[in-house]
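Margin note from the TA: students keep mixing up input and output lines. Inputs are the sequences; the output is the structure of the whole complex. Example:
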Amino acid sequence: MFNEDVAYQRLWRRIVNRYAFTRNIQYTNAIEKLYKKQPELTYQALKSFSEERERLEPLQVQAYFSQLLQLQQKRVGGVDPEYLLQILLGLELDHAWRWFYFGLHQNKQQLQRYFSSEDEQSQALFEGLKKGVSAFDVERVLRYYADALTGPGQPLKFHPKDSTAPLDHDYLHLPDRVMAYPDGEALVDQDEDLHFWLYKWLITHEQGHRQAGTYFYEAEDEETGRQALIEYLQSFTDPFMAEALFHLFEDVRVEAHLLRQYPGFEAGRAQLMQLEFAFRPEPESPRERFLEALLQQLHWGKSHIRPEKPWQAGFEKLLKESEGLLEKTSSVSDTIRITGLAYAQLETLFSEPRLREPLSLTLLPYELPLLLDPPPASPSSSDQMRHLWNEPAEDDNPEEDTHEDSTEGDISFKQAFKYDEWDYREQSYRTNWCALHEQPPGEVTAVSTLNAPQVAQIRRAFEWMAEEDWTRQKRQLEGDEIDLDAWVEGMTDLRAGQPLPEKLYTQQLRKKRDLCATILLDQSDSTARLTPTGEPVIGVEREALRYLCEALEALRDEYAIYTYSGDGRGQVDCFPLKTFEEHYGLTVQYRLQALQPLSQNRDGCAIRHITKRMEMQPARTKLLLHITDGKPWDHGYTQKYALEDTKKAIQEARAQGIKVFGVICDPYAPAYVKSTYGPGRSVILKDINGLSDLLLGLYRKITW
Amino acid sequence: MAKATAKRAKSTENTPFYVPMSDEIELFEAAFHAKLPVLLKGPTGCGKTRFVEYMAWHLSRPLITVACNEDLSASDLVGRYLITNEQTVWQDGPLTQGVRQGAITYLDEIVEARNDTVVLIHPLTDHRRILPIDKLGEQIQASDGFLLVMSYNPGYQSVRKELKPSTRQRFVSLEFNFPTQEKEAQIVAHESDISFDVARKLVYLGGKIRNLAGQGLEDELSTRLLIYAGQLMKADIPPLSACEAALIHPLTDDRDLQRSLLEVAKNYFG
Ligand SMILES: Nc1ncnc2c1ncn2[C@@H]1O[C@H](COP(=O)(O)OP(=O)(O)OP(=O)(O)O)[C@@H](O)[C@H]1O
Ligand SMILES: [Mg+2]
């Protein structure tokens, strides 16, 4: 009987104190639950973890316990907590979760082994993740790349494979590299470039299909063309075989097309073929052998294997026929013709049974959305980014908005500002999707005192900065100095019998800064989190904002302060703490002092509102300073969906000439949160107590 | 003092190289004969300056070019008195020279000039075609061959730099854009003295990069930059480095975007 309650309690308390993440009740509960079910494991986990503690970040700690709990719930035995910890220490958090989910989705047998340190597959994955590129890491680069290739008309939609994207024909699913080559030891040592290259090639290949008209078989549009293809393939007794052949020949045609257009792919492709063919499985039947040889010959120009004697003549004939596919003028109809030919040949040469399931005769480890029977959706789909919000998995599908029906008829919805929201999966807007209300901000009747010397210092610094904006204007009617150029010219005129010109002076004039700024603060409940000094984040923010106001006053810039929170798309609240018209007086200070954590945050909508509010401002330079924890989170507004919408809202603001900067108050914000704001347009705050300094410095820098 | 150099012989030797995009040559010629001032609108580096050079040659007129900037004063354009040996002498500014000589007078990037300078040209743009010179108490009538041409880059959309409608509506406007790919390749090949094949690759790459204008890239890629890339290649810089230096880095500081563009470049030059 395990009886170390005291030791457990002590350990647990130490950890809690150390990381101060007690606010997250769910975790405290999770550990307790785990402890009740598996005291030994929990104890062991806590212990091992506490030994390594100086190297772990709070998010890692949370991940650790969350993973243990999930494993316990799935009744996975034989878990080695040490091993789990090693993974966490060895990988980026993002990748550690990837590794974890990959394990969870193994079949029963493998699942039991995966989380013990003996399992080779899980170790190989670990090694791979340490070195590899994941589609997620390079997604932004790939997206620009795809946009450049396709042009604005018809964006190529693609997703990292395990994203929440629907598995349909519209989307190209990028595989995870490691999963693509499960036994690809050789790949692990390749340079990173090859992995990236692979993603790039997949996108280019898919683009090639479009350009070369794969989906326009006897049709003017893709939809009809695809349907026509399906009907054609289904007319065979063995549609799967027909489809496999079709893909094989069509890929050959498309790749020839691509290489003509993009000669730069030649070298990389050759390298990839080398790798691909190193890993091909041995064919098991004469027909398989025939097909494999065909595949190698067509793509590689050579082959490890040849069909057996009796079938060689037929083989050569097919190769000869398919040469036409390499012609510039070839079309999908040519592929169809050769598919028919090949099918007939196989039927006469072999008497093997028809295929029961799709056969892949494509080289690349991706699924060109299969024409027949799309594969079932992967079970892992929506879990992928869950860890970002440190929440245990729950049903939270942006698609199903709980407020969907209730809001439309709601009066509050009607009186509100309505804003569209961006749905990245559809690559389109949901119109009038959110209702935002401007609410009167809370007020208190007293305000804490700021540090007087600090205020004085800030004022001095910023007043000095404002003075820097004085410039010397030439040819003025009056001024403190003579404009020599004008004077020489004037004297010359005088000699020539002209009157002396009047504008002979230079003068220091204040060049108007002509700038207005809005500070937009996320007031959601995440701001209740305690900082290491025991103060809630919102408290730090309150104070930092007041110091910033002092600076802005000294600069005499026009500025406004808004905060936001809300509860679902029908109830996005926005609080004007200080409008552009209001002065920074006691009322504004009372409002600042009254700031308290509220509930959710739907960032995109709030940003759109500020964009609208700034539209009317006459200043030449407009600035939006967004202070957030980088985790937009609301009902039906989570994960990638929320990030993408926020990004879109920022782009919209930019299009209106507003410069948007993000101050991300979460030291563990993953790098891609930064990408929401664009390069150089955000800072991740490592120490929340440094917020004030950071805001002052940032403001000075970007408005200089 | 520069005096009118009336008709110059049209020499075939130094014909400026110009590839027309559509009917701009005819339009310009018609405007010239009808004495209508011309505004060339278009993004930077798309051939406006080259076009004016070509037209000046084609119409056998001298060409006077003034690059406008914030400090350009009315005197800088019209002229001023100078002191020489105890004497004061009037010196014509470039605009006055153009008016007298009957030259094609090209004010490049007119939006850069101060508003009080810009209004000076107004009387030159209507049927009177006169240039008042206050200091001389004179109004000069423009010679026959005089044509006022200005350029303006609308893509420059900063609130401060816009051409006022009252100025804009005094001109016949010719819109310039990037040439077709075949023509642009011809231009790039000629100007950077590289093979047509390489030039065409550059232009195709340019087309892909232009796909990102407005969705990531703020500025359009100019023909000029493509020529620079070609010139670097001609000087034996490896193609990808040439692309980075001439096409990618001048356009964006965004690292991801730079990488994406480099990947596109590799498709052609990798
Ligand atoms: N149609 C063309 N024919 C020949 N050369 C061209 C043509 N268009 C562009 N070029 C080439 O591109 C270069 C840049 O063009 P140019 O200097 O005329 O651009 P611009 O429109 O005047 O640019 P900016 O607005 O920056 O002054 C020229 O030096 C020339 O080499
Ligand atoms: Mg294919």
